[in-house]
Amino acid sequence: MKRLAKKPAKKDEVAELKREMARLKRESNAKIKGLESKVKSQAEEIERKRGEIERLKADLQKKDRMLEENKKDLSRMKKESSSKIKELELKIKEITEEPGKKEEDLQASKKLLDQREVELKRLREEIEYKNQRLASKDMEMESYKKVTEERIFQLEAKVKELEGKIGELSSIS
Q1: 66 is in which domain, residue-wise?
Q2: Which of 88, 165, 173, 97 is nearest to 122 (CA)?
Q3: Whole-structure pTM value
Q4: What phi and psi values does residue 89 have, to the nearest 5 degrees?
Q5: CATH code of the domain covering residue 150
């Protein structure tokens, strides 16, 4: 009788082990599908981040070009105003050195001088305003550049992290 009791017990044990193996296989297949889905979404996220990095790099290059153009414009305007100032100073010198001119010439010259001084003042204010704007743009560009570089660094770190996870997941399966 003892032998008969052992055989059904072994059969039950074998059947239980088979059921357990089937259950474990289903669970592992479900986990594998979940991990595959996760890897796929992480790969998509990596590609999206790469696109964002490229867009940010292009924006930064565009801002750098704009900054260089603004610097060139400011330099050109400074040269123009400097030449106008010299021209006005020469005219003032000519006017003051010629004592024999008529009163009308003096009045016309004075009027011209006043106009030129107003123009000079306007140009100086314009240059000062543009200098302030350029300085503001420089600060803005530096700030944007720092933020962009930091964001690029973070995104690259995230990409490396995700690539590491993908490598781990692919080596597991």
Answers
A1: 2-172
A2: 88
A3: 0.35
A4: -65, -40
A5: 1.10.287
Q: What is the DSSP code string of the chain?
A: -HHHHHHHHHHHHHHHHHHHHHHHHHHHHHHHHHHHHHHHHHHHHHHHHHHHHHHHHHHHHHHHHHHHHHHHHHHHHHHHHHHHHHHHHHHHHHHHH-TT--HHHHHHHHHHHHHHHHHHHHHHHHHHHHHHHHHHHHHHHHHHHHHHHHHHHHHHHHHHHHHHHHHHHHHH-
CA-closest candidate to residue 40, choices 160, 153, 170, 172:
170
Q: Do the beta carbons of residue 24 and residue 123 sit within 8 Å?
A: no
Please provide the distance, in angstroms rounded to a whole number, between the alpha carbons at the two ends of the chain.
48
CB 65 within 8 A of CB 147: no
- In this structure, are residues 57 and 155 in contact, taking their beta carbons and an 8 Å threshold? no
| Per-residue pLDDT tens digits for 87-143 | 888 888 777 766 655 677 778 888 999 999 999 999 999 989 989 998 898 898 899
The number of distinct structural domains making up the chain is: 1
Which residues are within 8 A (CB) of 94 and not within 5 positions of it... i.e. 6 or more apart? none
